[in-house]
Amino acid sequence: MKMYTVEGIGTILLSLPLSIAVLSPFAEAKPIVEPVVEPVAWGKSTAPSELTSVPSANSPDAKLSTSQSTSPSTSQSISQLSAEIQQNAIAPEVVSQNVTSVSQLSDVRPTDWAFTALQSLVERYGCIAGYPDRSFRGRQATSRYEFAAGLNACLDKINEIISAGLADKVSKADLATLQKLQEEFAAELATLRGRVDALDAKTAKLEAQQFSTTTKLSGEAIFGIAGATGANPSGGSNTNIVFNNRVRLNLLTSFTGKDLLITGLQAYNIGGGSSSLQGTLGYADGAGLSSSNVRLGYEPQFPGVNPTNSSTVAANSVNLYKLLYIFPVADKLTFFVGPSAEASDAFPAISPFASEGQGAISRFGQGLNAASRVSAGTSGTGLASAFGFIWTPSDTVDFRALYGNITAAIPTNLATTPLGSGFFGGSSVIAAQLTLKPSSNLDIGINYANSYHQINILGTGLGAADIGAVNGGAITEPIKLNSVGANLTWRLAPKVAFNLSGAWIFANLVNVNASTTFTSWMTGFHFSDVFKEGNTAGIIFGQPLARNSVGGLATIPTGATATPYQLEGYFNFKLSKNISVTPGVFFVFNPEGLNNAPTATVGVVRTTFTF
Q1: Are strands 260-268 and 319-330 parallel, antiparallel or unpaired?
Q2: How many CB atoms lie within 10 A of CB 594?
Q3: Strands, E assignment, 406-471
Q4: Per-residue pLDDT reduced to its tens digit, 302-314
Q5: Residues ≥6 apart with Cβ < 8 Å to 364
Q6: Are 298 and 381 in contact (CB under 8 A)?
Q7: Mean pLDDT of the chain
């Protein structure tokens, strides 16, 4: 098959010196030049993907977004519903973007040999478009079929000119050139029609056979092999090798094409309390909630237990972990509401390590700062009922806020409901994130959360100090928290990113003069396409959540004055589009801040299936 470059097409079509600047959509006239097939313009979603040079955007790394049933505006609204949804969400096709000036094409320069041709095609004919990143990719080869699709787009534009009653703008020489091109590419244009008809038939068949016209089903299954050493000499033992799983099924539904209902089901067999890795080592909290510096990234924050009503969650029982509805209310404003949600559903993950199925292997290593995790904001079980908004005034500024409450379904306080009751009572949080993109290679996120908990906990899951947070009052004491955090990712090169995050939590007991300040920070490098396309790797170092200072009657527990640090490395390699394997190891020095504790070492091999 004869091949052309995209720049070459510009030179060929330059022989059609027609202007569409005076096109009037209200004038009517019979077309003189009839297109051979239905219009298949470059950059239009109607063009078959195999006939154009436009790549597909349905990559595993796509953020939560939409296709036929959901608009791209909604896709920008919720950035991190959770890693498995990010990788299996409904994604919009990447289509070319119409440009009105050749200067809008970032990789076309006045010194390029085809600049004049492209200038005419873009600014006079209007039948050439750029890719979504405003590039033209002129050196990319194209086939005769792709050229025919572009030719047909220009024929359609000329028909519009003639239909508008501007036939005098078309010279006989122009029509002769068009006729020659149509004759030259008659076979390809006819084939285009056949392929489009075949695609229409396939689409109709798929629509008739799919289980729902409004819903897409996606899923993720994680197989994890893990083991740990470095037990607490005051009580703990090295672990055996364990083989765990976590499975999530997600139903993504749109009713209007602009809204989105997320329904997520989850099952796992990861142990909690003394049955967890951290519990066996002797580094978990004493309340059986599994909070620890030594945590796996894909385990829920409260494995094996529902802290709202103290009930047990049986291994591999199927539970609702996500129920959230997102809908636009204005051009740049989106609302969301749901009875099973968390802060990470709404707040963009600035960290490149954040995916539970593809990113860092530890909870701390995923880089979501403690201010976003506070009040179970990243529980992994959709613990809270929440509502909020997303405001995007520009491409560089994004502001989101929410109110969440983990006791909304409980009508009254009981002995089995330690966190309280009611949607506006009990334990709640008001949280916000401002995301700034001052340049194409820099993302900055700033978090704030104001929380009230009916018992003395932080709700981050990052350290045993999470439970009985202010050491100066009973665990039953109510507590107020003000949390501030920041996260920065700087892409030093196309395949190398630097990340830095930190957080401060200021905790005060309500009825006792006692306060504690907690700090946490992390830094690391993320590498993409390591050895082959799709592989990623990360190296991370930082300080897990730790007590930094105390006030009033609060104290730092005796023997826990050391500062914990963590070092982690992992390599995620793709076996196929839908299967990846991630070996990794992390070391926690001075785990839980204990003065004489040996270094805890955790090794993990995580296999992730997405479908």
Answers
A1: antiparallel
A2: 21
A3: 428-439, 442-453
A4: 999 999 888 999 9
A5: 293, 295, 462, 520, 522, 542, 544, 545, 566
A6: no
A7: 82
